[in-house]
Amino acid sequence: MLHRDYLVEQFIRFAEAIRLSWTKAKGDPRDPLDAAEVLEAAVGSATNIDGATLLLLSSDSIASILQVTDTDPDVVEYLARTLLLESEYLEEGGEHVRSQLRRDQAYAIAQGYGIPLSPEAITESEFEDFFERTENRAS
Q1: What is the Cα–Cα distance from 3 to 127, expressed in whole angstroms?
Q2: Measured at the alpha carbon of residue 86, what is the angle toward residues 80 and 89, in degrees to the nearest 5?
Q3: For residue 138, with 0-12 CB atoms within 10 Å meaning exposed, 13-18 middle and 19 or more buried, which class applies?
Q4: How confident is residue 50, by pLDDT bands cut at 50, 70 and 90?
Q5: Higher model confidence: residue 139 or residue 58?
């Protein structure tokens, strides 16, 4: 029960951060870099290690570290999708190097956990479907 409550809380936090990032990235004024920061904060609060440290890791290390720190596998797909979405925002904001790092991290996590990940996985409609599926799975 406690574990399920924790998962639902994590899913809600991610969903809120992702929806807020959409508003910042597509609103008026558009601010994709601020949207990226919202997502980075969400990633940082969802892991058992310092988020800033996690996000500095190479793509080769990030999935291994998540496994060692016992990050819940149900949260990991949110992490991968969120990092891929953040990479899009960073690219829009001109932060090409950081964008590539986030993209590489997202795909490394997905590969390490056997999660199918593609650009289609970060569309608004796919995220909404994903939110619904994960919420139902955690309930």
Answers
A1: 23
A2: 150
A3: middle
A4: confident
A5: 58
C-alpha distances (whole Å) from 139 to each of 15, 70, 84, 106, 121 are 16, 21, 26, 26, 22
Q: Tokens standing for 35? A: 């949207």
Query: Residue 11, Cβ neighbours under 10 Å: how many?
Result: 20
CA–CA distance, 42 with 22 (Å, rounded to integer)? 14
Neighbours of 6 (CB within 10 A): 14
Burial class (CB in 10 A: 0-12, 13-18, 19+), 78: buried
Residue 56 phi/psi, 5° resolution? -90, -15
| Vertex 19: Cα angle to 74 and 29 (nearest 5) | 150
The alpha carbon torsion through 107, 9, 14, 45 (nearest 10 deg) reads: -80
Helix orientation angle between 73-92 and 124-138, rounded to the nearest 10 degrees: 160
SS3 128: helix
Q: What is the C-alpha separation between 56 and 133, in angstroms, rounded?
A: 30
Q: How confident is the model at residue 37 (pLDDT cuts 50, 70, 90)?
A: very high
